[in-house]
Design a protein that fits this description.
About 15% of the residues lie in helices and about 35% in strands. It is an alpha+beta fold and about 160 residues long.
């Protein structure tokens, strides 16, 4: 068996599937909502004008689709979000592609909300493509608001080769 055909997914990786990350906190504030909405080209006043958002039935400015708050940075935290990349495949894979991101919303996210998120690897899959062996990793992140209610679940797919 050649190195190219050695399975990429290790026992350690299989054991890592479903293990939830430490929770991390994200703030949803008016300035960030406005900046994100402007950056992606939204023009609906519910993203900029609090009176318009309240008139439309929201508590405050609405977080635009795709904006799930700004992580609170703590330089003194021992393990910062994104540092623990988990177990690695049986051989190095140096290239990464974004395979897509989907967000399912369960409730409104508005300015003033404080979200807590936890992530986990949902699955690893190995495929053979024209570029050789590929490792496809699906990650799920669950976002809960300050009341503990799940407001969104983001599913991300990463492709390494």
């Amino acid at each position: 068996m050649t190195q190219e055909k050695t399975p990429l997914i290790t026992d350690e990786m299989r054991a890592h599937v479903g293990k939830e990350s430490e929770p991390y906190t994200l703030e949803v504030d008016k300035t960030s909502i406005r900046m994100f909405a402007r950056a992606v080209g939204h023009t609906d006043p519910i993203f900029y004008d609090e009176a318009a958002a309240k008139a439309a039935g929201y508590r405050s400015l609405v977080a635009p689709p795709g904006y799930l708050g700004t992580p609170i940075f703590n330089p003194n935290a021992a393990a910062r979000r994104g540092r623990d990349i988990g177990p690695q495949p049986s051989r190095p894979l140096n290239r990464i592609l974004n395979g897509g991101t989907e967000i399912e919303y369960f409730d409104d996210i508005c300015a003033g909300d404080v979200l807590t998120a936890t992530s986990h690897v949902a699955s690893y899959e190995e495929r053979e493509g024209s570029i050789g062996q590929m490792l496809i990793t699906t990650t799920k992140t669950v976002y809960r608001n300050q009341d503990g209610k799940v407001v969104a679940i983001m599913t991300g797919t990463g492709i390494r080769y």
